[in-house]
Amino acid sequence: MSNFKFQTSNFKFVSMNIKILTPEYVVFEGEVDSVLLPGKNGEFHIMKNHAGIVSSLIGGEVKLFANSIDEAFAKNFTKESGKDSVFAYAIKSGIVEFNHNKGIILCE
Question: 73: part of which helix (H) or strand (E)?
Fold first, then answer.
């Protein structure tokens, strides 16, 4: 018999915060499940607890995966058809920095 006790209090539910900025305005700021980004060598997906990364972005869509987004930012996004939790924002280029479950995307 094992003396192991499972204690849920030892676990933290980690949130992932993303901020998307252009020179003109804040496109989005809030919690997401993950983000799909257009990279030079193809799309790449950043999820919670991803290793730190800095990368350039090419033209394409930044896709946020979240149950919902704040109404103040919803006007900046299109919803993927048939996918309630995917919100897309078109960019020409940019850069992303992600570390410790916080990411910032500077784009135009």
Answer: helix 71-74
Which CATH fold topology does 15-107 show? ATP Synthase; domain 1 (2.60.15)
Q: Would you list the domain boundaries of the chain?
A: 15-107
Those residues with Cβ within 8 angstroms of residue 82's Cβ, 6 or more apart along the chain or in another chain: none
- Reported as a single tens digit per residue, the pLDDT across 26-56 is 999 999 999 999 999 999 999 999 999 999 9
Check: CB of residue 59 under 8 Å from CB of residue 93: yes
Is residue 68 exposed (0-12), middle (13-18) or buried (19+ Cβ within 10 Å)? exposed
What is the reported pTM? Answer: 0.85
